[in-house]
Design brief:
By secondary structure, the protein is mainly α. The chain has helices at 6-72, 78-98, 103-133, 139-146, 148-228, 243-398, 403-535.
């Protein structure tokens, strides 16, 4: 069995069990189908027996209804009679349908139907018709009752037929029940037998398959344990063709390769130990040189840091001077702008003062014109007053006829007096206005002269500020040149400082790398020794 692989062996065992299960399931299914068929036939038989009993009940109902009607002539007895006939026909049809595959039963039902029709036509229906015609109790009624004996014979014949019909169905029912019990016993026996055979075959297959797998597996496990303990001299070859045999052959090849590998590792460990000692010596020398270089570059870096600090201080002072020059230039520009704005404002103010002086002079001329107009008005009012006096005198001369005219003349005289008074007030106001105008013209002329002098002073201040701005600009340019040179020197110093720092970092890294290399070489030597110890634990051919 070990000549086959494990997969086919397991598949063969499981296939055998599955085939047994299929056979058992097929037998169980067949017997179950037979049981279902027998149960359905039993159900048909039960329904046939019930149909026979219902037909017998229908016949009894017909007979009872007939006797009741013959005895009483009450039409109510005809209702169960008709119902019995309908029920008998319905159950007869049901019995025919149920026993359609049984010729003997169909023949019994045909015979019974013929007797039933004969019984109705010859006895039941004629008796009911005759009783319907008889209205009084007498000899005819006695003869009618005496004729019922012939109907009893047909009724007994139908009962015998129905009894034979139902007995036949009962026998069929008994036979099917026996068949069902036999099928149940057969099914139970088949299932038990199949289960035992399946269990036996599964147990045997499992035993042999397990044995064929575990025996070589134990050998493979023993070989693996010996190899794990360092014994590479174990023989792992196997003649088995299954997976375990292939595993043993693979372990045999692995053992051979491990032996060759252990030999190469031993040689390599010896060479690594020798090389690590040489590397440790070289690392020590390199470490000392790297430390000296690191100390020297540290001193140079310190000096460059001090120089860079000094250069940065000079650059900072120069930058502050340049900033102060730029601030002075900015403020001088702002002052020039303010002075120019003041000069422009003063010029504008002088122009406005001159314009105001002209307006006031024109106002003085207009006030003199107003004075002339007032003189004319004053003369007109004086003449009006004289005319009013003359008119009053003439009105007084006219007497009663000139009274109304005198009143008007008096009013005109009053108006002329008021006009003269107002003219006097206006004349006083105009004199004050002319006096103020003359003073304003004088003040305006003085302001115009002062504005002219201020404009000249502003122009001189602008010229001075432009000179200051030019000087400050020159100072700022010189400061910028100094700042640029200082910045270049600072950049150069920083580059030198960075380079020295980088050299110092490289030297530190070199020192660290040398230290690590020295430690690595020592660790490598230790590992080489441990490797030799480990390899020595394996036994090789």
């Amino acid at each position: 069995m070990n000549q086959f692989r494990i997969g086919p062996r397991l598949a063969a065992g499981f296939t055998a069990v599955i085939l047994i299960l299929i056979v058992i399931s097929t037998l169980a299914y067949i017997n179950f189908a037979r049981t279902v068929t027998a149960t359905e036939e039993n159900d048909r038989t039960f329904r046939a027996v019930i149909a026979g009993e219902e037909m017998l009940v229908s016949l009894l109902n017909i007979e009872t209804a007939e006797r009741g009607y013959l005895a009483t002539a009450d039409g109510r007895f005809l209702e169960p009679y008709e119902a019995g006939r309908e029920a008998f026909r319905r159950h007869l049809d049901a019995a025919r349908e149920i026993t359609s595959d049984r010729p003997q039963q169909q023949e019994r039902l045909d015979d019974m139907e013929q007797v039933y029709e004969q019984w109705l036509e010859e006895h039941i229906q004629p008796a009911i018709a005759r009783r319907h015609e008889i209205t009084t109790f007498g000899d005819e009624l006695e003869d009618l009752f005496s004729s019922l004996g012939g109907g009893h014979e047909l009724m007994n014949e139908m009962r015998s037929t129905l009894r034979a019909f139902m007995e036949h169905e009962q026998r069929l029912l008994t036979e099917r029940q026996d068949n069902v019990q036999a099928l149940q016993l057969q099914t139970t026996g088949a299932l038990a037998t199949g289960t035992l055979i399946g269990a036996l075959i599964a147990g045997l297959a499992g035993f042999f398959i397990t044995r064929s797998i575990t025996r070589p597996t134990r050998r493979a496990l023993d070989v693996a344990n010996r190899i794990a303990d360092g014994d590479l001299t174990v023989d792992c070859s196997s003649a088995y063709k299954d997976e375990v045999g292939q595993l043993l052959n693979a372990m045999d090849r692995m053992s051979d390769r491990l032996q060759a590998m252990m030999q190469r590792i031993t040689d390599s460990a010896s060479r690594v130990a020798s090389a690590s000692e040489q590397l440790s010596s070289s690392s020590e020398q390199t470490r000392q040189g790297a430390r000296q270089q690191s100390d020297q570059t540290t001193q140079v870096a310190t000096a460059m840091n001090e120089m860079a600090s000094t250069v940065q201080e000079v650059a900072r002072n120069t930058q502050e001077a340049s900033d102060a020059a730029r601030d002075a230039s900015t403020k001088a520009d702002e002052a020039r702008t303010v002075v120019e704005g003041s000069a422009n404002g003063i010029n504008q103010l002088a122009d406005e003062v001159r314009q105001a002086s002209g307006v006031i002079a024109e106002l003085e001329q207009q006030s003199e014109s107003i004075g002339q107009v007032l003189t004319v008005i004053r003369e007109i009012s004086e003449q009006t007053n004289l005319l009013a006096l003359n008119a009053a005198i003439e009105a007084a001369r006219a007497g009663e006829h000139g009274r109304g005219f005198a009143v008007v003349a008096d009013e005109v005289r009053k108006l002329a007096s008021n006009t003269q008074k107002s003219i006097g007030d206006i004349d006083a106001i105009i004199e004050k206005l002319q006096s103020g105008t003359r003073e304003a013209v004088g003040v305006m002329n003085q302001g115009s002269e002062s504005a002219g002098r201020n404009v000249q002073a502003s122009q001189q201040a602008v010229e001075v500020l432009e000179g200051i701005i030019a000087a400050v600009t020159h100072i700022s340019d010189m400061s910028n040149q100094v700042a640029t040179a200082v910045e270049e020197q600072t950049t150069t110093a920083e580059d030198i400082n960075r380079n020295i720092t980088a050299i110092n970092d490289v030297a530190a890294e070199t020192t660290s790398a040398v230290d690590e290399a020295a430690g690595a070489s020592q660790e490598l030597a230790r590992l080489a020794t441990e490797l030799q110890d480990v390899v020595s634990q394996f036994r090789v051919r």
